[in-house]
Amino acid sequence: MKGFLHLLAGGVALLVLAACVIPPVPEPEFGIVHGPPSRAFVDATHSAGIEAVHRGEFAMDGVEGYLGVGQAWGDYDNDGWVDLFVTGNLAPNVLYRNLQDGRFAESPWSDQLAFPEQVSGGAVWSDYDNDGWLDLYILNKEANTLMRNLEGQGFVDVTAEAGVGDTAKGQSAAWGDFDNDGWLDLYVVNWTCLPDCKPVDFETHQDRLYRNNGDGTFTDLSNTMARDRLLGAGFAGSFLDYDNDGDLDVYVVNDEYANPIGNVLWRNDGPGCEGWCWHDAGPETGAGIVTSGMGLAVNDYDNDGDLDMYFSNMVRPMTLLTNDGTGGFANTEDKAGVGVHENGVTGWGALFFDYDNDGWRDLFLAATTVKPRALEPGALMDMLFERQNYLYHNQQDGSFQDVTPETWKEQPRPTMGAAYADYDRDGWLDFVVTEWNEGFTLYRNQGAEGAGHHWLTVRLIGGQGVNRDAIGARVTVETEGGPVQMQEVKSGSSLGAGNELSLHFGLGSAAQATVIIVWPDGSVETHSGVVADQIWQVAR
């Protein structure tokens, strides 16, 4: 947002019309390629019974409101079907139970998570205590909340005893076992200190890293990270092994609005350094870009065996960081055609997922429009007006084709959050989005594209020193004549979101696959002749 800030003498940043003339965006080196509009997705919100609403308010100076959205998929009752939790911001949160027939019903335990007196944003599931039941971490405008799952029969607030009630303006959170001790740790991404930034209160406004002690409690290890790099206005973050060295690093997408430090790539350098060694490798790897970062997608979109990252921006083109395999990144959004070189676009949540099961991850981007609230001089700018979302089909050569459905263009919405799952267990990935101050839309993938393509969903269950969710494990799938695909199990990315923990692989025409699993402890399993078109479960 920095390009639109007019800093007043009192230090409060306002977006004013006179300072907010949006400059024309230069033409990309490679033009966007448009393909036939996709027919893959249908709006299943009503038929599925999703009726929750989102009610929010937000002032650009940070004085009022909370820019929070949350949507998280997770099988809380262990019946094999993913359930859905959504946060309402000013409206109550809702937990939906999957009825296994394409419909959802409000869970009997939804009221325990509604938080009518709270203002909730992001949410993410994980089994932090390794008891076999997914627990839920909810980010709030004030203290965040950890809700422990009582074996599918309700939830209990364990925030105080766990010690993870961070009180900053949390936007997103991610779980990952950075020390490979078999217990999931937690990184909390906080937005900004506004309106009270002079001076910044380090204790209440920085990002947080919590180490799981294995006994239901956590230790705050934020002091092991460079404090000035924890003070960005963060929107999204993810654990990932970007350098393929076997341990989880952390990438944080920051908005330059309040503190232009750039995005941060925390390289995990192992034990020591008064607790643990972390180094911001952003500047030396090309990942430390200073921009108005918003949402984040992480996956190996080009099937070359390392993790790439796509993050959204406000007004500027989006960024595609392609991993070069040596620990560095290059921004290839122009060549790939996914920058969205259009005036007034604010990108939010983003997803890498293979919607047509051809073995190559495609891309979804949630977006809104920036424009004045009113046309008189001095009018404030706003960025939450309706706009079409974007769908890009992977062309298997490093580029994407814009296949955005016509209905999305004809019926634009103020979309921010997004998360994917195969909620109806038909082998085609679906997704849900949050629309600011409106509600939620569930897009069902009807398999209209990629007909005849096979698929394989891999669900890992940890044990014997590996966290129960197997977060951080890597799965490689090989098929005859198809690409070699690699994905990493993760919890938390996009924007305030939790995708389904199982890994979905499109197999194209292949009816079987070889699956190689690298568990977080480094042990390797190879399984040949795995039959396609199934949810395949592997336990330690």
From TrEMBL:
SUPFAM superfamilies: Integrin alpha N-terminal domain. Keywords: Signal. It comes from the Bacteria. Residues 470-536 form the ASPIC/UnbV domain. This is CRTAC1 family protein.
